[in-house]
Structures are given as structure tokens and as C-alpha cells.
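Lecture 7 notes: from sequence to structure.

We start with a single chain of 186 residues. Read the sequence below before looking at the structure.
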Amino acid sequence: MAKEEIKNKEEKEKNKTEEKIEKTLVNSDLEEKKKKLDEKKKEAKKEEILKKTEAVINAQNVPISTKHSIAICAFLKNKRISKAISELEEVLVLRRAIPMKGEIPHRKGKMMSGRFPKKATSNFLKLLKSLNANANYNKLEDPIIIEAIANIGARPYGKFGRVRKKRTHIKIIAKDKQKINSNKTK
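Now the structure, written as C-alpha cells:
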């Protein structure tokens, strides 16, 4: 009887070790399958996330002159964001004038006529810094301002309903320089 009990115990131990081996095989297979699924999900997410090719900033009803905003937009167009920021900082310290058309007096030097619109320039600096942050987030390597548009905004009445306030909508779009060149060659 002792021999039979020993054989039974040995068989039970063999069965247990075989079950453990099967479980580990099944678990390792499951782990491999999970890893494959995770990799597939990551690839699908990469495909879903499209890389943006432009950075856009929109500002509604900014309390600045539309006339000055239009002149600044023309001044900013086709420039790098960093260069535009540095030039607008020069305008704030009265080193560089914004070229303007219309009944505006002439300036000394190369430019025909221009002014130093401080309030509009300071607002544009904020917008350009935000645009630069958007371009960095979208991973644009060499962003250039393609569009700069200023339009008349909603003009509310001032106190006592006599004066109309200044309001301007501003939209600035920057694209990667390489994308612009590839589009022109096509």
C-alpha cells in the first residue's frame, strides 16, 4: 500500500507541474497577444493623429484701431514669427515705424509714411507669442506668417450711448516654410 500511495502522490505532483506549465504557457501566450494588441492600438492612434501643417490664432473684438491693425497685418505678412516679434518690439521703443497709407505724415529715411501704434502693437505682440507657442506645439520647424487679416469687429456704444468703441477681429495663420515651397512648385 505504501508503494501505491507513493505512486499516487508522484502522479499528483506530475499532474500539478504539468498544469502549472500549461498555465504559464497560456499566460505567456496571453501576454504576447496583449503586447501585440497594444502595439496595434498605438499604431492606430498614430494614424488617427494627423500632424497639423499650420498654426492659427483668432482674436475677436480686440479694443484696437482697425486702421492700425490692417497696417500691422501688412507689415507682418511673409515674415518669420520670431522676426515679426523682434520688429514689433522695435516699434514699441520707437525705433521702427509701421508703414501706413493714407493721410499720414512722411518719416525720415527709406519709408514713405508711417506711425508707431503702441496699443495695437502690444496686442499684436501677445497674439504673435501665442502663435509661436501654437507653432511649437504643432512641431512646425520654420513657421512663416502666411495670412494676417484684420476686420472691423462689433462696435458697442460707450457710456451714455454717444461714442462707438474701437473693435477689431484679427486672424493670423503661420505655415511651415517647407510646406509653402512644396506647394508653390506643384
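The chain is about 55% helix and 15% strand. Keep this in mind for problem set 3.
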